[in-house]
């Protein structure tokens, strides 16, 4: 009887430790390959949908990236544009619509047409909530998610991240200095990838990034030069490029020293590394 009781206690302790571990991220387990799946694996699945994010994780990108808006009824939704016109079967302005209204839009419509797929091959997809994606990401400890706020919703996004205890799984990226600075004010340990244009003043950007505590500068690929890459690295920042889908350009940028590439085709980029 005593032996059985001891065994039961050991089982309970093991189960408890497993539960604790599943709610905590070990930094050493996260992948570090410099591949950001832009809007998920959007070359193979409709952008900013759960299948695209699931695929980005499955193929082995170390980060998946998503875009964020706030609905009329205060829901944080994952979509790139102000309206659903480009991706959906009907046009709705995100900020002027409730989530119930937005859920009726088939955001796989554009992808299905461009890839000449049937509805059976590419079924209806609704716009996901940020919470849906975060919970998906939290189920594993290899891939993290970078959030790009397309509206003034950083405070709400960070609050949700903290509520779900997901700080280790999350980063933020955008070109808005206001939004990215707000991230660091609210959550200093969450990494920020500051997106910059092709013709940006790299010296000024480096000074700002260092002063604000950002971790990376991600440049439009058309403006990248070896000199800019060297300056970014010398400042202790990670140099990145967005958004690159051409394999020749991928190889060129990697050879020049780019450490992170945003791509719609993470599977292709991983093959080249």
How would the blueprint of this fold be written?
Elements (H helix, E strand, L loop, with lengths): L1 H21 L12 E4 L11 H10 L3 E8 L5 E3 L20 H4 L6 H6 L15 H8 L6 E6 L4 H10 L6 E5 L2 H10 L5 E5 L5 H11 L3 E5 L5 H9 L3 E5 L4 H10 L3 E4 L2 H7 L1
Helix pairs in contact: 2-5
Number of domains: 1
From the 3D structure, determine the CATH topology: TIM Barrel
How helix-rich are the residues, as a percent range?
25-40%
The name of the CATH superfamily reads Phosphatidylinositol (PI) phosphodiesterase
> Any guess at the CATH architecture?
Alpha-Beta Barrel
Largest sheet: 8 strands, parallel, barrel
Structural class: alpha/beta
Overall pLDDT metric: 93
The best one-word shape is globular
Walkthrough of the structure:
With 273 residues, this protein is of the alpha/beta class. The protein has a single domain, classed as Alpha-Beta Barrel (TIM Barrel). Helices cover 39% and strands 16% of the residues. It is built from 11 helices and 9 strands. The protein has an 8-stranded parallel barrel, surrounded by 8 helices. Strand 6, helix 8 and strand 7 form a beta-alpha-beta unit. Helix 2 packs parallel to helix 5. It is globular, with a radius of gyration of 20 Å. The N terminus is likely disordered.
């Amino acid at each position: 009887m005593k032996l059985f009781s001891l065994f039961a206690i050991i089982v309970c302790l093991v189960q408890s430790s497993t539960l604790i571990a599943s709610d905590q991220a070990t930094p050493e387990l996260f992948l570090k390959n410099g591949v950001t799946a832009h809007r998920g694996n959007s070359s193979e699945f409709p952008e900013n949908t759960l299948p695209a994010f699931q695929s980005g994780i499955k193929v082995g990108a170390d980060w998946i990236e998503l875009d964020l808006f706030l609905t009329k009824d205060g829901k944080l939704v994952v979509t790139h544009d102000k309206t659903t016109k480009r991706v959906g079967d009907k046009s709705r302005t995100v900020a002027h619509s409730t989530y119930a209204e937005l859920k009726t839009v088939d955001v796989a419509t554009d992808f299905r047409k461009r890839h000449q797929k049937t509805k059976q091959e590419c079924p209806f997809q609704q716009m996901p909530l940020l919470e849906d994606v975060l919970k998906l990401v939290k189920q594993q400890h290899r891939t993290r998610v970078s959030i790009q706020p397309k509206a003034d919703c950083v405070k709400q996004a960070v609050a949700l991240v903290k509520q779900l205890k997901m700080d280790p799984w999350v980063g933020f990226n955008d070109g808005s200095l206001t939004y990215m600075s707000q991230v660091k004010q609210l959550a200093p340990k969450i990494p920020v990838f500051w997106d910059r244009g092709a013709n940006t003043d790299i010296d000024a950007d480096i000074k700002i990034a260092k002063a604000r505590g950002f971790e990376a500068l991600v440049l439009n690929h058309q403006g990248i030069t070896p000199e800019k890459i060297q300056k970014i690295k010398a400042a202790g920042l990670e140099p990145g490029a967005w958004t690159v889908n051409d394999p020749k350009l991928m190889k060129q940028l990697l050879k020049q020293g780019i450490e992170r590439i945003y791509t719609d085709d993470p599977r292709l980029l991983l093959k080249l590394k």
